[in-house]
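Give me the fold.
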Amino acid sequence: MCIFCKIVNQAIPAFRVFEDDKTLAFLDINPMAPGHTLVIPKVHYQNLEAIPEAELFRMMSTVKKIAKLLKDKLPATGYNILENNDPVSGQDIPHLHFHIIPRSENDNLKLWSPGRYALGAAEEILKKLKTEI
């Protein structure tokens, strides 16, 4: 059983922010900012591709509620919502989860470093991606 399933089953403690019959939101124990909250489905799904769409929609409703809560109750004027899929992306726990990270002016958080496409590279990637979905 993964650590998030143990949290859902109350086998280990967590600072629970919100809970309903399908989702759970709790404070990240290694926050990038005060109030950094994780939202998970109560059923174990490894990643974004695994969760049925109806459950994902329900989960995103919780993400939206928590994001608004963080902005309303904390000294945050914005937030980032992140979801890492598979270990190469930084997914340490193989249970789908969304990070909601409160942001404020001059918090100095650097979440990514944008790059640029080489000449012709964007067109080549577009050819690969323009397929049937």
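DSSP finds three helices and five strands in the chain.
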